[in-house]
Amino acid sequence: MVPFRQRVVALLIWFLSRNIQFAVYYLHCCTEDEFPEDPVHLALFLFDWFTRRAVCDAVIASISDLNDRYRVLCDEFLVRSLVAEFVISRNARGEIVPSTEAIHKYLGYWALRAVPARVQGRLARLTWHRNSRRKFGVLLRKEWLLHLSSCASARELSQAQLREAVFRETEHIDSQFR
């Protein structure tokens, strides 16, 4: 049985993104339940939730209020999906995206839209708080099965590791221009 919160957020994801697969992916991330494979049956399954008065009222209220808790969960998932798309495209080219770059992209996507009051504090904390940054990377890896790497600072690397990292990067840049 899917909890009320996940039902509302899944319907919001579907309605706002116009992609039923995102809604199902969100449900797979949150629950262990099985869902229909056929898009028609899936749509009927989700619309059955929408016919329930409490779910319908929560979805409608969330669509109109940017600061609603369900809307915030939906928006955060959708923005993380944009970051995941960026990381997946870079991984397809054989590049590993540093977690700092993924966080930078996440903040950049939020900068392009209206930011709810609930999210502003989390975004500000993400810019400087080490544990928040780590948790973001863990969530993104877990949710989208991504390959991120966290770069050690130059002070944490030995001289040999630093040379190796620089050599690898210059070799990569040289191969792009050949």
Question: Strands, helices and their partners?
Answer:
Elements: H1 4-17, H2 20-30, H3 39-50, H4 53-64, H5 69-92, E1 97-98, H6 99-111, H7 117-128, H8 130-144, E2 148-149, H9 159-176
Parallel strand pairs: 1-2
Helix pairs in contact: 1-2, 1-3, 1-4, 1-5, 5-6, 6-8, 7-8
What report would you give on this structure?
The protein is mainly alpha-helical. The chain has a domain at 1-64. It has helices spanning 4-17, 20-30, 39-50, 53-64, 69-92, 99-111, 117-128, 130-144, 159-176, and strands spanning 97-98, 148-149.
Features:
178 residues; mainly alpha; two-stranded parallel sheet; globular
Through-space gap between termini: 56 Å
Radius of gyration: 20 Å
Percentage of residues in helical conformation: over 70%
Largest sheet: spatial strand order: 1-2
Percentage beta strand: under 5%
Number of strands: 2
Question: What shape does the CA trace take?
Answer: globular
Largest sheet: 2 strands, parallel
Q: Estimate the mean pLDDT confidence.
A: 85
Helix-and-strand structural type: mainly alpha
Low-confidence stretches: none
Q: Could you give the order of the helices and strands?
A: HHHHHEHHHEH
Number of helices: 9
Short note summarizing the structure:
It is built from nine helices and two strands; from the N terminus they run αααααβαααβα.
